[in-house]
Amino acid sequence: MKALNKLITVDETVKLINEKNTLILAAEEAILENLPKGNWIGGTIPYFMDEKGGCLSKEKVFVTDFTNYIETSKIELIGKTEITNVVKGRYENGFTFMLIPCFSEVLNDFAMQAQSIEDLYNAPLVGWVTGIDLDNIGKQQPKVFNGNTGFNSDNIAILMHVKLPDNKIAELDIINIFCQGDGDTFEFLEDGFSCKDCLINGKKTNLADYIKATGLDVRLPIVADYSGASINISFQQVDEKNKTVLFYAPLRKNTVYKQAKPIEDYVKLFNENMPKDPESMIFSCNCILNYLYSELEGKTTGGITGPITFGEIAYVLVNQTMVYLNICDK
Amino acid sequence: MVPDINRLEWQELIKGKIQLKIESFSLQMKISSLNRNFKNGIIKIDRAVKELHDLCEKYEKIYTNDLNRIFKN
After folding, report:
1. Chain B partners of A172 at a C-beta cutoff of 8 Å?
2. Which of A209, A255, B8, B32 has the smallest C-beta neighbourhood within 10 Å, fewest atoms?
3. What ipTM, to 2 d.p.?
4. Residue B48 in domain
């Protein structure tokens, strides 16, 4: 049975909430704040991958319905000082779904500290970074909502810990069509979201100068190899005046990065890398940068649907990556 | 069945001595994390092996293909 994971009307969403379903919701702030209380958590975003293709919708809600797959669930709010506790409340057999607002201190702290969280990989930590219409950046803040109480915040992470039946298991996976190219190596001198000087092929170089001199295509992320997993760090801004480069996820020292190989046709490559068993998939999300750079508006990605997000959570913060969750038989 | 915790391959995985393309994302991330922590002296090899073995027991079905390829004999 395929889970409900689709863009629906507000009225259809209200019906599911009133039927006491366990839901993850994605929609504009004005919609989320007017929904009835219930067993849901929500995050702001108006971009979606629908069955008909990528779209912007300010009227509909993207609903992921866990009800038929789970035994129970509990909602937890986590502030910036507690961010390393995100997995403490999880169930032994289950997963944790996290929504976290973009441009927030709590996101920065999570991104910087996630890799040091004890037992992080013992159960899936999946989710996404909430966002806003790109035209409203600077005018509005992305938010998260607790459907149990109606509380919302732009600087809190909201978690839904989900317990699965004993005969089921959750598996988190990604589709990242970017992989390391054959170009220069980049090593960073400290952890963080920005860089002035770094080691390029072992030689200390100002990264902003290097990008200007080489004409580096900053739409392509830099990629690290984590024992075979390609983890992207996307460029946010090249500040030539201050000779600083900003990124959407933290750079790690003692890690070798290379820029991704160029991609000619995102949709074609995505379809070639589709999961073997999409029927087990109960949730997925994809990155706003893939939506923009690969011009996904109106295009479908192998029938996979979900919110288009300002960052993806696959245990850690990842960029330009599709993240998905499977529920399988044990 | 997950191979015995005393098999040498567990230590080799953590020390980065097995150059094999792991398929499961969570296993890739766990090995990478243990590899980094072991190199930086944050974790001792016995503890790292125990953590990796425990994870593989929990997710045995998901990791079957990877485990079969790592532990060929």
Report:
1. 25-26
2. B8
3. 0.94
4. yes
